[in-house]
């Protein structure tokens, strides 16, 4: 007789709009709901099934950073190891949801579904989207087809891979998109359907209790490179450059990048362009090719903020040779 599959889902709450209500005194939304109170908003929307609640924190997502990621990943890993849990839903503010989802995707070791969701409209709004998104996430959590796909981002009945998901609109409920790659799947009524699986998966074990500092510095017309130098002076172990086009900077930025590379600071080059990623192809000073020749690595299709997370994890144990870093970004 085959073993009975568990149906219990773990709900980890971290704050964000999905647990926010309008404060009558200020007219402004604040994260105030507990996980149990969030579950109570599902009445009349559908049956959440068996859910256990873990209130990890209750903050706006701009206040979530590497320290919280480390603690959250430890909690999620311990829950995923339990035989009585089918999967995990993490509720999160949408501002930095994709960052947290990508971190979890990189460090967690589990075949069980881990679904990150949130809301664009708070619980005081008449069209609060939190209940629909939470129910959708719980359905995915129990779907056998969701196993082995890594961390998923699910809002508005669409499913994205953590690597590909990005917030594209500040208020639209259809905010999370996967760019040129497209959604992994969708949820219609009670049916969870996947159209494809993520082709690119990367795992970097979390080995440190605190992650090394990595800063993001933007290239723009007339950039002096002073912020590259300042980041290194402030103790950054790595710098992600948000370059233009397919990974280019001006000569001043290129000079500053070369100088910090000589000081042992790792540099990854991403782009401000949402699609296409970085690639070599030009030979002018400051081009992606010249930066790579100087010892920087190209981040490929990763956004600057996702490239930063890879670089932080890669540098946990100290400096890493550029060819080894390049292999990580190529995976």
UniProtKB/TrEMBL annotation:
- SMART domains (alphabetical): Asparaginase (SM00870)
Is Metal-binding there in the keyword field? no
**GO molecular-function annotation terms?**
asparaginase activity
Span of domain Asparaginase/glutaminase C-terminal: 214-321
Presence of keyword Aminoacyl-tRNA synthetase = no
Taxonomically, which superkingdom? Answer: Bacteria
Identify the enzyme class. hydrolase
Return the CDD domains for the record: L-asparaginase_II (cd08964)
Keyword annotations from UniProtKB, A to Z: Hydrolase
Task: Indicate the segments forming the L-asparaginase N-terminal domain, all copies.
Answer: 10-198
Q: Which GO BP terms apply?
A: asparagine metabolic process
Residues at the catalytic site: 17
EC number(s) per entry: 3.5.1.1
What SUPFAM superfamilies is this protein classified in?
Answer: Glutaminase/Asparaginase
Family the UniProt entry places it in: Belongs to the asparaginase 1 family.
Under PANTHER family, the record lists: 60 KDA LYSOPHOSPHOLIPASE, L-ASPARAGINASE
According to UniProt, the name of this protein is: Asparaginase
What is the source species?
Alicycliphilus denitrificans (strain DSM 14773 / CIP 107495 / K601)
């Amino acid at each position: 007789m085959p073993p009975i599959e568990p149906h219990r889902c773990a709900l980890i709450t971290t704050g964000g709009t999905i647990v926010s209500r309008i404060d009558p005194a200020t007219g402004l939304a604040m994260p105030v709901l507990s996980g149990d109170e969030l579950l109570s908003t599902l009445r009349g929307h559908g049956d959440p099934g068996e859910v256990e609640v873990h209130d990890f924190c209750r903050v706006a997502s701009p206040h979530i950073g590497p320290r919280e990621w480390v603690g959250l990943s430890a909690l999620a890993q311990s829950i995923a190891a339990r035989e009585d849990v089918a999967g995990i839903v993490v509720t999160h503010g949408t501002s930095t949801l994709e960052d947290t989802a990508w971190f979890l995707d990189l460090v967690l070791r589990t075949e069980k579904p881990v679904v990150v969701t949130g809301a664009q409209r708070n619980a005081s709004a008449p069209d609060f989207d939190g209940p629909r998104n939470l129910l959708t996430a719980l359905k995915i959590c129990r779907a056998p087809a969701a196993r082995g796909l890594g961390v998923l981002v699910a809002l508005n009945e669409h499913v994205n891979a953590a690597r590909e998901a990005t917030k594209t609109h500040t208020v639209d409920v259809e905010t999370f998109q996967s760019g040129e790659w497209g959604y992994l799947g969708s949820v219609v009524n009670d049916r969870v359907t996947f159209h494809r699986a993520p082709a690119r998966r990367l795992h970097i074990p979390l080995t440190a209790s605190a992650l090394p500092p990595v800063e993001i510095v933007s290239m723009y017309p007339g950039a002096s490179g002073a912020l590259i130098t300042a980041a290194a002076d402030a103790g950054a172990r790595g710098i992600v450059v948000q370059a233009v086009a397919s990974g280019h900077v001006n000569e001043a930025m290129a000079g500053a990048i070369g100088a910090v590379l000589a000081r042992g600071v790792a540099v990854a080059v991403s782009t401000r362009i949402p699609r296409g990623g970085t690639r070599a192809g030009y030979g002018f000073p400051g081009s992606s090719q010249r930066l790579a020749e100087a010892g920087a690595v190209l981040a490929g299709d990763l956004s600057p903020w996702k490239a930063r997370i890879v670089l932080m994890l890669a540098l946990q144990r100290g400096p890493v040779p550029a060819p080894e870093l390049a292999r990580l970004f190529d995976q």
